[in-house]
Specification:
The protein is an alpha/beta fold and about 325 residues long. It has a single domain (about 15-310), classed as Aldolase class I (TIM Barrel, Alpha-Beta Barrel). Helices cover about 35% and strands about 10% of the residues. It contains twelve helices and ten strands. The chain has helices at about 10-15, 55-65, 90-95, 120-125, 140-145, 150-165, 190-205, 220-230, 230-240, 270-275, 290-295, 305-310; strands spanning about 25-30, 75-80, 100-105, 130-135, 175-180, 210-215, 255-260, 265, 280, 280-285. The strands form two sheets. The protein has an eight-stranded mixed sheet. β3, α4 (about 120-125) and β4 form a beta-alpha-beta unit. It is globular. The two termini are about 25 Å apart.
């Protein structure tokens, strides 16, 4: 039977005889809040300098207490700019005391801001993996998406990270993230990584480990941009028509537990921004659940999920196929 042009994500899975079931949670992703020094056009969090939503010390301690007895090895810190929360260093130190691997999703420019000049050294001293936003290797595209002067600041920050050993020493991994400009799908991750490494090395002497290509999700600020351009419906259709069954096995919602700045539980950071909180009669907070109980709850999906399954797929670790 032919699939309807308006099929939901669940109907599309069923058509391809696929199911979206949880695996064991191996990653805890914490969205530390919406405070950021940038206001990027593609941001699915609507983050910015005026946002007040940030995680508190009390919530951090409750998370750490819940995490202590679990086998989760990786904690992925995102935002906003995670480094801007007052208790960022406290959170990282406590996670390292628990022998967790820590990922910092960094916009690079924060490392040059007043009062954050020592942050790069702190990250290196604690062997924090950096996943850094770098939507292009040319200034025109980066500044168009992220703001005037962001490209030059990003280059300087990357050069400083290289001096500390990031992208060069195995204990200091440095990965870059590519987001397309406008209503387009990412190109080949392998080809783009090759281009990035050639251009950044030859022009700026920069080394990094991997490039992750991530699809822009049609939610929050990017959805508003799409609507203003009259491209929202067209972009959703592009994602739907590009559905790739081979990506479902690797979707991040299967092994990643996402929580908001208040400790509320979601399947992914995109669901968080859409308010699709996990429930078991009542909305769930991290300290309300046990991992074996989580496995019984269905993954919440919507039309935005086509973004993660379009083309080569998209996850926090880049393409999926």
């Amino acid at each position: 039977m032919r699939l309807s042009e308006t099929a939901t994500f669940e109907q599309t899975l069923h058509h391809h005889r696929l199911s979206l079931l949880r695996k064991e949670s191996s990653i805890l992703q914490i969205n530390t809040g919406k405070l950021c020094n940038l206001t990027c056009s593609h941001c699915h969090v609507n983050a910015g300098p005026a946002r007040k939503e940030i995680i508190t010390r009390e919530t951090i301690d409750r998370i750490l207490e819940w995490l202590e007895p679990t086998s989760i090895q990786t904690v992925d810190l995102t935002g906003g700019a995670p480094e801007m929360i007052p208790d960022f260093c406290y959170l990282v130190r406590q996670l390292k005391r628990q022998n967790r691997h820590v990922i910092d999703r960094c916009n690079l420019t924060i490392l040059l801001e007043p009062n954050y000049e020592s942050m790069a050294h702190f990250l290196a001293e604690n062997h924090v993996e950096i996943v850094a936003s770098m939507p292009c290797y040319t200034p025109e595209n980066v500044n168009a998406q992220r703001g005037h002067g962001v490209f030059d600041d990003s280059i300087e920050a990357l050069q400083n990270l290289n001096k500390l050993g990031y992208g060069k020493q195995p204990e200091l991994p440095l990965h870059l993230v590519y987001n397309p400009i406008g209503a387009n799908l990412p190109g080949s991750q392998k080809d783009l990584e090759s281009d990035y490494k050639r251009e950044l090395k030859s022009h700026f002497g920069i080394d990094f480990n991997k490039l992750y290509t991530i699809t822009n999700m049609p939610i929050s600020r990017f959805a508003s941009w799409l609507r203003n351009q009259g491209q929202y419906t067209e972009y959703l259709e592009t994602l739907r028509h590009a559905f790739n069954p081979a990506t479902v096995e690797g979707l991040m919602c299967r092994n990643t537990l996402n929580i908001g700045w208040k400790g509320e539980v979601y399947d992914c950071d995109f669901n968080q921004q859409l308010g699709l909180q996990l429930k078991d009669v009542e909305p769930l907070y991290l300290w309300d659940i046990q991992l074996n109980h989580l496995a019984t709850l269905p993954i919440i999906t919507g039309s935005h999920c086509f973004g993660c399954t379009a083309g080569a797929g998209s996850s926090c670790g880049g393409s999926l196929s």
